[in-house]
Specification:
Blueprint (H helix, E strand, L loop, with lengths): L11 H13 L7 E6 L7 E4 L4 E5 L4 H17 L4 H12 L8 H6 L5
Parallel strand pairs: 1-3
Antiparallel strand pairs: 2-3
Helix pairs in contact: 1-2, 2-3
The chain binds zinc ion (ZN).
Amino acid sequence: MIKSASGQGATLTEMYAHFNKLHFGGQLATYTVRQDLTGKDGVMGTCIPSERLISLNENLVGGELIGELLHEMIHVAVGHHGVAFAREVERLIRAGETSLDTDAHRRAAFSLS
Ligand SMILES: [Zn+2]
C-alpha cells in the first residue's frame, strides 16, 4: 500500500517526480518512494540505488517527511554526504524548501552514516 503524504493529495512517488522536475531538471532516475521503515532503530530514510527505491520512516509527517524525501533525493543526485551534498541542501533551501532549513539537516549533510 502506498501512503499519501498528509495534505498533499499526492503519493510520495508523485512528489519525488514533482521535486525531480522542480529542482533537478528531471535528471534524476525514476525512483519509487515508500514510507515503510519502522521507527525502532531511528533511521529516518534510506536510498537503495540498485532497486531505485527510497524508504522513509513511518513516523514522519508534514515538513519532516518532505525534508527527509528531499534529503534522500540529494543522495540520488550526488551520492554520499559531504561538501557536494551540503551544497545541494543549501541550493534547495534557497529555492524555498524550508523543510531542509534545520540544524539536523545541515549536520546530516556531513555525517558519516
Ligand atoms: Zn543521508
